[in-house]
Design goal:
This protein has 76 residues and is mainly beta. It has one helix at 31-41; strands at 2-14, 17-28, 55-61. The chain has one domain (2-61). The protein is flat, with a radius of gyration of 15 Å.
């Protein structure tokens, strides 16, 4: 079964440098439901300060590992 994760992602510059600011908004049964959530949020405080392209919908399968390899941390 597929579900749709809705994220809000943008670059933020602060005392630590530039990094991605990511918020998982929710998990939805359909892409249309995720798009409805964007429509409800796009004019809210914070969200309205970033373009609509900051909203990302990712289709994923329930029960499937999404990260199958190791990772490394890079610090600047």
């Amino acid at each position: 079964m597929d579900v749709f994760m809705l994220w809000h992602v943008y670059e933020l510059e602060d005392d630590f440098g530039i990094h991605d600011e990511e918020k998982m908004i929710g998990i939805f049964q359909t892409e249309a439901d995720a798009e409805k959530a964007i429509d409800l949020l796009k004019d809210q405080e914070g969200f309205r300060d970033h373009p609509l392209q900051c909203f990302e919908i990712h289709k994923i399968k329930i029960g499937q590992i999404g990260w199958t390899e190791g990772f490394s941390t890079v610090r600047f």
